[in-house]
Amino acid sequence: MKYTSLDTPAVLVDMDAAERNIREMLDGAASAGLAHRPHIKTHKCVELAKLQLSAGAAGITCAKLGEAEIMAEAGINNILVAYPLIGDVKLQRYAELHKKSPGLLTIVNSIAGAKALSDTALRSNDKYDVLIEVDGGTSRGGIAPGDASLEFADSIRGLKGLHICGLMYYPGANYSKHDDEGIAAAADRERMDVTGTAKLLASHGFDMSVLSGGNSVSSKVPQHLLGLTEIRAGNYIFNDCQQLYFDRVSEEQCALKILSTVVCKTGPCTAILDAGTKTLSSDVFHGTDLGYGRICGHPEIKITDLNEEHAFIASPEPLPFEVGDKVLIIPNHACVVPNLAGGMYKIRADEVVGTLTVDARGASR
Q1: CA-based diameter of the chain, in Å?
Q2: 42-91, pLDDT tens digit by residue?
Q3: φ, ψ of residue 250 in degrees (nearest 5)
């Protein structure tokens, strides 16, 4: 069946493009001596996680413990829970998961959190491998690189339930860089922050076996990340307007698209589509007028506004669409779309070849 026969709105994954994206990321990582631990919060899908692993990924990264539980239940090991585990309920869940998930590790970024995690390990006659979260310039919970990270490591050195085995760094600030020079400079800063902090901690007796960094921006310039041990790109499997608008990727490299139908023409240059915030999300690029996504093949047409079930489009010229026509949309932020949809269609050469289940949909605890 041709994908154009699907009812809409429908989320499509071009499997050929996704597989190319996976191979290119792994090849780039290997060229710089880096392992790849992809972030599965982008797709939350066991089948796609296993595809990444079968292609050569060294493990996976999960945003939340609920995702990790679902992936582990599906037989996936070497999971990094890249989020602080706070509260008795989560600590008990982690203790249970640790007993049945080889290679499991997580992060710490507060003394209180580290102490509670250590106490949980000791109650289970266990010891947990942990990475210290180092701030990558987003002030999103990590410890500042350098002396502050050493001071933090020293403050939790005596916790007998934990084994500090490295650092985790999220370089989110690099999404604001829109040219090769800026991206390279941000990656260089990431490398220096991580390797410099690791060298300092190692000189004080800490194990720095795992130096985890990278996202879908810096991981595409892996030669600037030499000295790290692994990267954690996530969005790269799909790509989206975060990179398309700034010429980092082409439409053909954007593997996730939304099929939508023109349900109303409000004028020769304006119309309404049947995909709103419940399909595309309301993510925008602040400080720009780029709209809510790209209609494939028509960069001149802007998605100007969204309601829950409506997308409003406008063109400087008469629209080439009539009521009932279908269009493909590349979302601003692909990572949100699978969790909204719950299911996706696998496409090859315009044919529907199967479906993908978003196994960890809603697993935000």
Answers
A1: 70
A2: 999 999 999 999 999 999 999 999 999 999 999 999 999 999 999 999 99
A3: -100, 170
Least confident range of 39-48, 194-203, 226-235, 280-289:
280-289
In the sheet with 105-108, reading across from the earlier edge strand, the strands are: 35-36, 230-231, 210-213, 162-169, 128-134, 105-108, 79-81, 60-62
Query: Where a domain ends, among 210, 238, 266?
Result: 238
Work out the end-to-end distance of the chain between its first and last CA atoms, rounded to an integer number of angstroms.
Answer: 38
Q: Which residues in 148-231 belong to E strands, given as ranges?
A: 162-169, 210-213, 230-231
pTM, rounded to two decimals = 0.96
With respect to residue 163, please indicate whether it lies within any of the assigned structural domains. yes
Q: Which of 238, 264, 285 is the last residue of a domain?
A: 238
Same domain, 255 and 212: no
Is residue 287's pLDDT more than 80?
Answer: no
- Backbone φ and ψ for 6, nearest 5 degrees, come out as -70, 150
Report d(CA 249, CA 254) in Å as an integer.
7
Question: For residue 264, what is the domain's CATH number?
Answer: 2.40.37.20
Q: Which domain holds residue 205?
A: 16-238
One domain for residues 163 and 108: yes
Asked if 363 and 28 count as a contact pair (C-beta separation under 8 A), the reply is no
Q: For residue range 201-258, what is the model confidence (pLDDT) as tens digits? A: 999 999 999 999 999 999 999 999 999 999 999 999 999 999 999 888 999 999 999 9
Run of H or E including 123 = helix 111-123
- Structural domain contains residue 43: yes
Query: How much is the mean pLDDT over the chain?
Result: 96
Do residues 307 and 206 share a domain?
Answer: no
Q: Find all residues with CB under 8 Å of 73, minimum gap 6, and list them.
A: none
Task: Using DSSP bridges, classify how beta strands 105-108 and 128-134 pair: parallel, antiparallel or unpaired.
Answer: parallel
**Is residue 364 one of the residues assigned to a domain?**
no
